[in-house]
Amino acid sequence: MEAQPFLKKRILGIQSGELIAFLGFYLFWAFAYHTAITINSRAWSKGEVSLLDFGEFMDTVGLDYILKALLTFPIWWLLIRRLKGWKNIKKISLHFIFLPAFVLIWQQLYYWISEIVGFGHLNGVARVWDIYIPALFYTLQFGIIHSYNYYLDNQRKIRLEGELRTAALKSEISALKAQLNPHFLYNIFNTISASVPAKNERTRHLIAELSDLFRYQLKASQVEKVPLREELEFVNKYLALEKERFQERLEIDIDVDDSILNELVPPMLLQPLVENSVKHGLSSLIEGGKISISIQKKGDQLAFEIADTGVGIKDKTNAFDKGIGLTNTRLRLEKMYKTTLQLSDNTPKGLKINFAI
């Protein structure tokens, strides 16, 4: 049980388990090469060389593979981690630059160090083997690395598709439930509102606002997109109800240009994020806090930002495992727009959520 977290621990963006496999790969090929050289040497027949001779191992291939590993790691990190968002064809094309550079740098370092410490190396026309073999090994190892990375990406896509199917099924079931008798809720709200004394007009108003929230939720289950204006009206009604609970402890700031209010967006897109800020960010603070919503047009996209001055989230990697609102919104964005939520720290405190559609 304890080995699993260790294997997933990351060093420069690469998991410990991957590094162990990387070192094991090099040790295997280094020893296999050493064995082949030893068996084919004249000294083998005379019993002068042992497969377990560490000094001989370092002399023949140890230095060779140590240098290869040191040169491989930064290329691996750059292609698989730093340029993770690049298309495979672009990353593979970089090997036309990295492969000759790898071979040249390895050969020069290997010869230079070998001459300093007294190890032997190929000379004359035989040096061509110190071009061919490193190039072949480079192709082999990065073929394996790219295949492994493709496998991981494919597994992530399979998991995401499974999550999306589950979320879609739950949404369909929820929509069916909501459509069983939608007027039942409205009638109940009207009955409650009628039973409230006339002097409690504020309570009647709150019941009417709550009724509007349910009406919009029903609409959200029947349409794919609504004008941004309607989505913001829904969020404003929700925040107005929360304001009744928090009073002066809740400050609200909405910054949206009128020119984009007719842009179409998925319904119920903002409310789960705002609710997350209220419930998990501000509700536990005695002094309350502020929620800011900013929406801007950037090129062909709408850029959204929901920020709060609450307690924030330390472990942002696992944040989506805890909240239904964050998780469902992330899945909707990935399915509809191939984008996702970006979580960061707000200033001076709290959480900031950004995304674009």
Task: Please characterize this protein's 3D structure.
This protein has helices at 3-8, 16-40, 42-46, 54-82, 88-93, 95-117, 129-179, 182-195, 201-220, 228-246, 271-282, 324-337; strands spanning 10-11, 14-15, 226-227, 250-256, 264-265, 289-298, 301-308, 342-345, 351-356. The protein has 357 residues and is of the alpha+beta class. The protein has two domains: 3-164, no CATH class; 247-356, Heat Shock Protein 90, CATH 3.30.565. The strands form three sheets. A five-stranded mixed β-sheet has the order 4-6-7-9-8, covered by helices on one side. A two-stranded antiparallel ribbon has the order 1-2. Helix 2 runs antiparallel to helix 4 (54-82) and helix 4 crosses helix 7 (129-179). The chain starts with a helix and ends with a strand. Mean pLDDT is 76; it is low at 51-55.
Helix content range of the residues, please?
55-70%
Strand order of the largest sheet: 4-6-7-9-8
Per DSSP, what share of the residues sits in E-state strands of 2 or more residues? Answer: 5-15%
Count every beta strand, where a strand is a DSSP E run of 2 or more residues: 9
Structural class: alpha+beta
Average pLDDT, all residues: 76
Low-confidence stretches: 51-55
Give the number of domains: 2
Largest sheet: 5 strands, mixed
Order of helices and strands: HEEHHHHHHHHEHEEHEEHEE
What general outline do the C-alpha atoms trace? Answer: elongated
Distance between the termini: 40 Å
Computed over alpha carbons, the radius of gyration is: 31 Å
